[in-house]
Amino acid sequence: MYHTWMRYFTPSPVHHRLGLVCLGVGLQHGTLPAVGPRTLDHHVALVVSAGSGWFATPDGRRAPVTAPALIWLVPGVPHHYGADPETGWDECFVDFTGPATTTYTELGYIEPDRPVVALADPAAARAVVGRVARAARRGNPLLEVETGAAVHELLVALRRARADLAPDGDPVLQALARDAFQPLSVAEHAARHGMTPAELRTAVRRGAGCSPKDYLLGIRLGRAKELLAATELPVAAVARRVGYDDPAYFSRLFTRRVGTAPVRFRAQQGRTVPGGWSQQIPDPDDPPILTSGGPGGAT
């Protein structure tokens, strides 16, 4: 005995240009019949939140699936899977496609080489699928855009739910973020963690989907933008604050990556502040809370 509900959609070509589109959504539980062998032309993220079953690799070997788990079905790769015929399982799935799948795969959010992924907690992913299901009501004029946006959110939720990652990210990434503004090389960062540069690259690639250099650069330039936009510090001082002793090198790096020079960025972001600039540099991890004020407005 099993229960199933599903809807399928056909987004237009213009919706595909959003990067991701949702092709279908389903909620099922019970002793579901096996699926396949079959091959699809799109991606499916299938979340098993209760129960167990199996997944057959293309060479015919069966791997156990124990909830909570994620099953990746990717285009052009044969698959075959099923719930335990005695206990069944509880699943939800989203079918999707679009050019952004290539980038999400490169970043490690979609893992074609690891079709079965253990999850720590599927609640957030199931909540996103629930929103897709609610958006799937007939006659919803925002259907394609709303469900497409939810696919992006689902990929993030699944990435965060992976059992091999801590909820707040890999401890190595946390340490790198903490030390990002120190003038250290990648090799020096690796040595701090008792790792070789190759081991650090593997850890950062697994956790952040990029190289250590790009991970650190993103943090540094993000902070540099904040300092340029919210303070009157000279560019050389901003460079030192984010770990660059050579302001000329910092300016070249900023211009190449951001697309505009630091001085130009400041001019674009600048605000006329009544009473002058605050001397307190804002902490991006502790944003101010806007509350309802009196006649003067928010405080």
Helix content: 25-40%
Secondary-structure element pattern, one letter each: EHEEEEEEEHEHHHHHHHHH
**Beta fraction of the residues?**
15-25%
Mean pLDDT: 88
| Gyration radius from CA atoms, angstroms | 24 Å
**Count of β-strands:** 9
Ranges with pLDDT <50 over ≥5 residues?
294-299
DSSP helix count?
Answer: 11
Biggest β-sheet strands, sense, barrel:
9 strands, antiparallel
List keywords for this structure.
disordered C terminus, alpha+beta
Q: How would you explain this protein's 3D organization?
A:
The protein is α+β, with helices and mostly antiparallel strands and 299 residues long. It contains 11 helices and 9 strands. Strands 1, 2, 3, 4, 5, 6, 7, 8 and 9 form a 9-stranded antiparallel β-sheet that branches. A hairpin with a 5-residue loop joins strand 4 and strand 5. Helix 9 packs across helix 10. The N and C termini lie far apart (58 Å). 29% of the residues are buried. The C terminus is likely disordered.
Brief characterization of the structure:
This protein is α+β, with helices and mostly antiparallel strands. It has eleven helices and nine strands.
Layout of helices and strands, plus pairs?
Blueprint: E1 2-8, H1 13-16, E2 21-30, E3 35-38, E4 43-56, E5 62-66, E6 69-73, E7 79-83, E8 89-97, H2 100-106, E9 116-118, H3 123-135, H4 143-161, H5 171-178, H6 186-192, H7 197-208, H8 212-230, H9 235-241, H10 247-258, H11 262-269
Antiparallel strand pairs: 1-2, 2-8, 3-7, 4-5, 4-6, 4-7, 4-8, 6-9
Helix pairs in contact: 3-4, 9-10
